[in-house]
Every structure is written in structure tokens, then in C-alpha cells.
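Much of what follows relies on a compact textual record of a protein's fold. A record is reproduced here so that you can trace the correspondence yourselves:

. . .
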Amino acid sequence: MEPRSKINFWYVVLAVFGIILLRDVWVQQQQVEVIPYSEFQALLANGKVADLAIGREQITGTLKQPIEGARSQFVTTRVDPDLADKLGAYGVPFSGRMESGLLSTLLGWLLPTLGFVLVWIYLVQPTLGRQAGGLMAIGKSKAKVYVEKDTKVTFADVAGVDEAKDELREVVGFLKAPETFGRLGARLPKGVLLVGPPGTGKTLLARAVAGEAGVPFYSISGSEFVEMFVGVGAARVRDLFEQARGHAPCIIFIDELDALGRARGTFNVGGHDEKEQTLNQLLAELDGFDPSKGVVLLAATNRPEILDSALLRAGRFDRQILVDRPDKKGRVDILNVHLRKVKLAPGVDVAAIAALTPGFTGADLANLVNEAAILATRRSAETVGLEDFTQAVERIVAGLEKRNRLLNAYERRVIAHHEMGHALVAMALPGADPVHKVSIIPRGIGALGYTIQRPTEDRFLMSRAELEDKITVLLGGRAAEAIVFPDISTGAADDLAKATMLARSMVTRFGMAAGLGQVSYEAEASPYLGSPTMGQWQPRSYSEATADAIDQAVRAIIERLFGRAKELLERNRPVLEDGAKSLLAHETLGAEQLAQLAASLARSDDQPSGAERLAAAS
């Protein structure tokens, strides 16, 4: 309840008690004397009463002549006549008593009413207020308004997305000086859509635009427009744009636009009518949207492929800005932003940390810095060192260490040979990434050991030879088990799944199977959410014969590369045994120990790597 309503309520309570108090004062000022009922009977018997007014509980009368020192009027409380006669015989003074009055009557109905009012104010009304803003505000927007002092974010706080910042600087320039921006007849795009994988900083960029321009920032999620009542979402869209127009210049930011702008007519599930009406209202608002008034619409999504085509056409969301995963230089810039509040140890190379994190987004890097600081704090260090960042990367990628997980001697031997198989195959192949660390300490849910490779550079194209090297490294663990032990184990399940996915992509998406031609048989499900998981159903647009040929080609790639890994390890059997013994003794081998093993390693044929082939071709 609002403070004003509370003040009015207490005014009423004070007024009621004031009336009761005034009534008591008024009664005291009257020329009426209260006498016992026995005295009234004596006055009546002596003939001194002039007149009487008989009520249900009281008798009021006037004396013929005032008694000395007494008043002419009197009042007494009635007593049961039979009881009065019996008491009068004994000469004992007696009087009646009022068992109810105005005060008790008022309190009898006022206190329960006051109780109900307090329950309404402090229990019922706050509950209704939390449920969709109350019944009267069900169509109101739930947008949170951020002003510049609340955002406290500028482009200096955003790194690794320089192209996206350059595009959005035009929006800031228009909000600050619309006359200068439109001097050649240019107009600001009605809508700007930020597209990219989760965690790349789309929301942070939108807040930075508001912080740079110093304008109000309306932020709302697309899911908050959708309710079970048909028409509520459309009402909230109208209300949001009305609020924004009243506070222009400002920025409207709709996060997770795919929850609101999903293509119409494709998902016939519950709430379909409500979602369509909400989307139609958004399209209508964008048609009547005048960007010259200083209202800018920003939106973000990681599922652009499912958005309605009418939403993405020119005149609505005119501009789409890709906010992709940062490259190595971008990761260095992002780390420098997050390392401002961290005490780094002398000699820590930020570029070396960035090299350990290929594919990390801005949110992943922020989490990495925080995890490294926590690890340094846990060991009571004064600064955060490179080893803390290395352990943080391992913790994020592989999971938490499970040092208390007890494995028998045979399982430890299998895991040691398995992981050393991965490492030796990677070190023997010319196109594989360098091996950074090998460990047999269990991590996460199912990882009993892990091998970490560190890319030397970011790659955007991969040759067939490089893909085959990756598959060969993945199969190195199973090959080592097949060479050393009489029977293979279940430890290669994840390796086989990844190797099969790569081989299938080579055949169905990259056209790298000789017998199937330069044809793409499967499309990537979502370019921003990663590859589809194994076993997920995909629509098929080819015949059974082609499907059989694809299966045969995938199997041939796996069998050929498995034989290659096995041949490399058989050639280096003594190195494999020595490496496994070192792993069993130390549990973890770093770059220096691995370099010693690599010195005595018989390498693969001297074929050039994929990068060298591309460089030679260019």
C-alpha cells in the first residue's frame, strides 16, 4: 500500500476516538446527577419527583424542588423490580450498572474491521501486487528502466567486438546529435538486431550504448511479453513503446527476441494465439515507429534462424550485427578488461592465457578470471599466477578434480596408457596442436583422465588433412588400449562420438568423400548454438542407397585413421610404456616432461600440415 493511503486510514481511526472522547466530555458537562436506584425509590415514595423519562436501561427524571447541594435533574440505572423490592426491605443502598456503552459498542465493531484492514494492507495487497503487477496492471510493461547512473557501462568496458562497437557508435552519435547525423538525409535504422552465440556480450553492448549516449535504457526479456491471457502480450508491447516515447531520447532493448519473434504458424502448441498476437503488435509498432523522435530499438538473439521473416525485413530490423566469439587478440583485450581488479603475479603473460582459451566467449573469460582469483585465494597467495589460470581452464573445460575417487591398479594402468596414446599421437602428427598437459586425475562427471592441446593460432579454415589428424588423435586412446591390453574398455566412448561426428561432417557437409561427390547432404542445425548432439534426429533428403554410402564412407574414414594411430603407437611402443609409467608415478605431466618424451619419438611421415599446404597454395 502507498504511504498516502496509510496516512488517510489512520486519520479515520483518530477521528473515531476523538468523537468518543468528545462525547464523554459532553456528558460530564450536563446538569444531570447519577443517583443509586434505592435513592430513586425513596424520592419517588416521598413524592419529590416531578416527571420521569423511562428507557430500556435508564430512568431520567426531574425533582419538584432541588435538594440542597444537589441538582434538579437526575439519572439512574434500572434494576429488576422484584429484586428491588426484596433489597428495599433490608434498607441497603443499591444501584444498577450499565454493562454496555457507546465505547464498548464502537470497539466491538471497530477492532474486527481494523484487523481485516491490516490483513488486507500487509498480506493480501502485496501478494496481488507480485502477481503480474496486480489485476489492474496486467497489461502494463515489466520493463526495467536503467538510467546512465545505473548502467555504468561504456564502450571501454566492452572488448573483443570492435566491429560491433563501430556499428553501434552510429547509434550513439544519433542519440547525442540527431541534426548532425541527418545532415545528408540519412536516417537511423528502426531496429538493430545483435546476433551471436550465448555469452558474447550482446546485452553488455546494448547497455554500453545507453551509457555512452546517457539516455534511459528500457530492458525487457521477450518471454515477459507472453502470458496465458490472450492479448496481454500485445498490451504490454503497446505500453512499452508508449513509455519509451514519453522519455525520448531513449533505448528499448528486448533480450531473447526469439521467445517473442518465433516464426508464425510453425509451432502449434499452447499459447500459439497469444504469441502471434504479441508478434503482430510488435510488427505494427515497428511500422509506425519514427526513429527521428530519438527512440532506438535494440534486440538480441542466438537463434536468428527461427525468427519470423516479417520481423527481419528492411524497415523493421534494418541492421543485423554479428557478435561472434573473439579471436586471440580479442580474448587478450577481454582479459585485460577483467584483470583490472585482479592482482597479477609479475611475469604473467596475458597472451599465453588467451592461447589456452580458444572458443571462449566473453562470459567464459570473465568466469575464468574469477575462478583463477578464487584458486589463488584458496592457496593463500598474494597474487594470481599463470598456474592459477591454467588450473582454472582445466576446471572449466574438464570439470572439478576428483582426487578422492578410488580406482584400482588395473583401471589406473588403462587410463594412463589411454591418455598417453592421445598425447603421443598428437606429438607424432605434424598437423596436430601441441600437447600442453596430460593427467590421469579424474575430473567432472565421467572424465577419468584428460589430454589438453594448446592451439598456436586461431583457425577459421581446416583442410582434410587437419581434420584427419584430429580424428587420429581422438582414436589414439583406443589404439593404445588395443595394443597393450588383451581387451578394450569403455573409456573411449566420448572419443568415438567426437571422431564419428567429425567424420560424418567430412562426408555429409564438407564434400570430402570421393564416392559421394561435392554435395552437402546435411545442414548445420544452428550456427550459434554449436553442432547438434549425436543421436539427434535430422530430416533426411536423400535415398536409402545414399544413406548406406554415407555410412560406409564414415566407417572407412574411422577404420583407416584408427589403423594409422595404431601404427604410430606400435612404432613407439617403448615411449608409450615409459610415458604411462611416468603418468602413474606423477599423475600429471606438463610441457617439459612431454618434451622429453617427444625427443625420442618416431614421428609420422614428413607430410606437410594443412596450414603449410594452404600457405604453399597461396
Summary: The longest strand covers residues 295-301.
